[in-house]
Design brief:
- By secondary structure, the chain is of the alpha/beta class.
- The protein has a single domain, classed as 3-Layer(aba) Sandwich (Rossmann fold), CATH 3.40.50.
- 38% of the residues lie in helices and 22% in strands.
- Strands 6-7-8-3-9-10 form a six-stranded mixed beta sheet, sandwiched between helices.
- Helix 4 packs parallel to helix 7.
- The longest helix is centred in the middle third of the chain and has 20 residues.
- The chain starts with a helix and ends with a helix.
- The relative contact order is 0.19.
- It binds adenosine-5'-triphosphate and magnesium ion.
- The site of magnesium ion has 2 residues, from helix 2.
- InterPro entries: AAA+_ATPase, ABC_AA/LPS_Transport, ABC_transporter-like_ATP-bd, BCA_ABC_TP_C, P-loop_NTPase.
Length: 266
């Protein structure tokens, strides 16, 4: 499942540091002085009850929301306040909670979209008239094929992405993010709505992204079984505050976490 050629292009030594981030929306504090560090090449889960601030956190990391105060850094690079496309260009890619694939495009073309920022000649726009553009497109299509193999969809490259089962469409979305050659991948509920079989397969791909490509993953996921199996570290949010953090087993037995999930004082 893992073509060796894919490993070298990736891997990072940069930690993603979230430092004292606060986000306020007219009167409501969605994140309140939250700090955590995503270690290079690790899966870091962000969990918590509904409304805890998980998606807000993602939106700050990807530049969709601007933090009221605090910092986000990737290695030495300050990401705070940068627009989403710049953050993506610096190596932080995301998938969305809801599917965002062009319905009629083939799997190959959907993946190719992820390579747009890496293209020099803009082959999608120039209509491939120049030999150099054709060469570049060939190179990108080869990379798309490698990534399709990596996510187990190389047989489906010429099918319309919209005709695939839901679980495979979500994998295409993950593949498209991988096509950006990210250092950090933000996955917002990547297995929500999947069958048990699709969940297993996607969880295996996520583990493989970390293990074979060395990409750091920030994972928001409600399925605690998957979080506990996949994550190297967990940050727990409740009402916008970080109430616990650490290894999955530690966090699972933390009284504050148990209380937040049961919603009742002990
Ligand atoms: N753009 C916004 N404007 C105003 N309030 C917002 C906005 N985005 C989020 N909020 C509020 O911030 C709080 C945190 O929301 P957020 O979506 O981050 O929670 P979550 O942990 O992702 O929840 P869920 O598990 O339900 O997805 C909520 O009270 C929410 O209503
Ligand atoms: Mg959310």
């Amino acid at each position: 499942m893992t073509p060796t050629a894919t490993a070298a292009a990736h891997s990072t030594t940069a930690a993603l540091a979230v430092e004292d981030v606060t986000v306020r929306f007219s009167g409501l504090t969605a994140l309140d002085g939250v700090s955590f560090t995503v270690e290079p090449g690790s899966v870091h889960a962000v969990i918590g009850p509904n409304g805890a601030g998980k998606s807000t956190c993602f939106n700050v990391l990807s530049g969709v929301y601007r933090a009221t105060s605090g910092h986000v850094r990737l290695g030495d690079t300050e990401l705070t306040g940068l627009p989403p496309h710049t953050i993506a260009g610096l190596g932080v890619a995301r998938t969305f909670q809801n599917l965002a694939l062009p319905p009629h495009a083939t799997v190959a073309d959907s993946l190719l979209l992820g390579r747009h920022r890496l293209t020099r000649s803009g082959f999608l726009a120039t209509g491939l008239r120049l030999p150099s553009a054709a060469r570049e497109e060939r190179r990108h299509r080869e990379r798309v094929r490698e990534i399709a193999e990596f996510i187990g969809l190389d047989e489906e490259l010429e099918r319309p992405a919209g005709s695939l089962p839901y679980g495979q469409q979500k994998l295409v979305e993950l593949g498209r993010a991988l096509c950006m050659e990210p250092k950090v991948l933000l996955l917002d509920e990547p297995i929500a709505g999947m069958t048990a079989d699709e969940r297993r397969r996607t969880a295996a791909v996520v583990a493989d992204v970390r293990d074979s490509l060395g990409i750091s993953i920030v994972l928001v996921e409600h399925d605690m079984g998957v979080v506990m199996r996949l994550a190297d570290a967990v940050t727990v949010l409740d009402f916008g505050r970080r109430i616990a953090g650490g290894a999955p087993a530690e966090v699972q037995n933390d009284p504050a976490v148990v209380q937040a999930y049961l919603g009742a004082p002990q």
